[in-house]
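To the wet lab folks,

You asked to see what we're planning to order before we commit. Fair enough. Below is the target structure as tokens, and below that is the sequence we designed to fit it. If anything looks off to you, flag it before the synthesis order goes out.
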């Protein structure tokens, strides 16, 4: 599939938005979604060390780093953003939320989403993730 997509210029940050709108979780290299994106050739970013701060939510997990609203933009330094497990309805909310709306990726229309079923990956949801990437980045 790698030869069927055109990768975006620059780096990419991937994340999940908390349902309550009070922050986000940046995906790490251990996250299965990021492992797939990396294998497809995306140049993925990591959360800067000085932003990691409180990792109480998910502290026993290596696949996410919790970001408070004030740390969303500095914690997701990618030129492109992929919001994993996000519906099109929620994408509009994200684009208008003050913590996200002024980010260069959002302002530059480089915010991409994957369907809600891509939160926990199994065989079927991994294929949904791949289909979503192909739909948005296909040649």
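Sequence we intend to order:
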């Amino acid at each position: 599939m790698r030869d069927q997509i055109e990768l975006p210029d620059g780096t990419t940050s991937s994340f999940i938005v908390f349902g309550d709108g009070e922050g986000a979780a940046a995906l790490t290299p251990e996250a299965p979604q990021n492992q797939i994106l990396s294998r497809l050739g995306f140049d993925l970013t990591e959360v800067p060390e000085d932003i990691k701060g409180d990792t109480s939510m998910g502290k026993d997990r290596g696949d996410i780093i919790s970001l408070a609203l004030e740390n969303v933009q500095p914690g997701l330094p990618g030129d492109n953003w992929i919001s994993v497990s996000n519906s099109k309805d929620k994408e509009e909310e994200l684009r208008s939320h003050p913590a996200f709306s002024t980010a260069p990726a959002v302002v530059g229309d480089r915010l991409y989403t994957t369907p809600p079923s891509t939160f926990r990956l199994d065989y079927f949801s991994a294929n949904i993730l791949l289909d979503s990437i192909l739909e948005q980045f296909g040649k």
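Structural context that might help your review: The chain has a mean pLDDT of 90. Residues 9-137 form a domain with the Rossmann fold fold (CATH 3.40.50.1980).

Thanks,
Computational group
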